[in-house]
């Protein structure tokens, strides 16, 4: 099977994406941070140095072409290594729910393998990108035609998120790196406007309460079901910086600044938009490893002073101002097990790879009475 990078077809969405607009406004006004994950993977027409800088394109290139970006490659290799063990534990024939798979390469190398090994008759990807959901459905139609595949465009971490299988038992898959992108605005809590220094690291701790709540949210979505979850536990600063300072991961993190210029300009959406003097080239990517929190913090740092407006809001940015776009937590096994227990999820199996920092866990989510009542109604 050959893999084709995302086409340049632009996904269909409202001319003014209100949620994205609000997220960018909150980021620049420092109301919230580390919350851009739902918007990073979208396709758009932004260009940097003559090449597309859309989220869909940049992520696919990072996952497929970057030698040092090990996360997806190691995740795939480990899943394939222990797939028979997974198939012994997770019941066969259940509907398959794929949570934010991220790229067609992931679907080809991981999701399809799970669907085949677990003999799933139905599959449903849940993803914030409409185009990716269509691509996923098309891929399954071609490579697993006996599987009924119908995706949903949504933020599966929303409290209102639901898959289409009601209260039925399902097999859920949460692979790759999305599950480590916890929202934890420590920079706002500590009043930081620049990159954190090593002397400030001790004040930044791993947010157990956030991970526990994240697992609980998935428990409500995947009521009384099986969850296959992988996560990166790398604690080595050197290999992390090699991975995250790669060309296309850099562009992936910065892509939302170009999308804002393309889709949210005043010329596009009127007086609520960005003024013409906003320059998306005025930002550089800078990852920061914070060992006390098991966190690789993905920052974007201003490389020059800027003044512009977003509707009625004036924004003044100084050179070296830092904006936390995304958290990539790297939690050890004991951290994940502790939070599963706190969330009421039973760990059925937990493996660690002896060739990479990848871990894979199978949990049984608890029955949620609220979900059962909702689906019964």
Task: Give a written overview of the molecule.
The protein has 377 residues and is of the alpha/beta class. Strand 9 (283-290) and strand 10 (295-302) form a beta hairpin. Strands 3, 4, 5, 6, 7, 8, 14 and 15 form an eight-stranded mixed sheet that branches. The chain has a three-stranded antiparallel sheet with strand order 9-10-13. A two-stranded antiparallel sheet has the order 1-2. The chain starts with 17 loop residues before the first helix and ends with a helix. The protein has helices at 18-28, 37-40, 55-65, 71-81, 83-89, 104-117, 130-143, 186-189, 208-221, 237-244, 247-263, 266-269, 333-343, 369-376, and strands at 47-48, 51-52, 96-99, 122-127, 148-149, 152-153, 171-174, 226-232, 283-290, 295-302, 306-310, 313-317, 322-329, 346-352, 358-364. Helix 4 packs parallel to helix 6 (104-117), helix 6 (104-117) crosses helix 7 (130-143) and helix 9 crosses helix 13. The protein has 14 helices and 15 strands. The protein has a domain at 70-235 and 287-376: Rossmann fold (3-Layer(aba) Sandwich).
Which CATH architecture of the domain at 70-235 and 287-376 would you pick?
3-Layer(aba) Sandwich
Give the terminus-to-terminus CA distance: 44 Å
Outline type: globular
Poorly predicted spans: 1-14, 369-377
Mind telling me the CATH superfamily name of the domain at 70-235 and 287-376?
Vaccinia Virus protein VP39
Number of continuous helical runs: 14
Mean pLDDT: 90
How is the CATH topology of the domain at 70-235 and 287-376 named? Answer: Rossmann fold
The CATH class of the domain at 70-235 and 287-376: Alpha Beta
From N to C, what is the helix and strand string?
HHEEHHHEHEHEEEHHEHHHEEEEEHEEH
Mind summarizing the main beta sheet? 8 strands, mixed
Strand segment count: 15
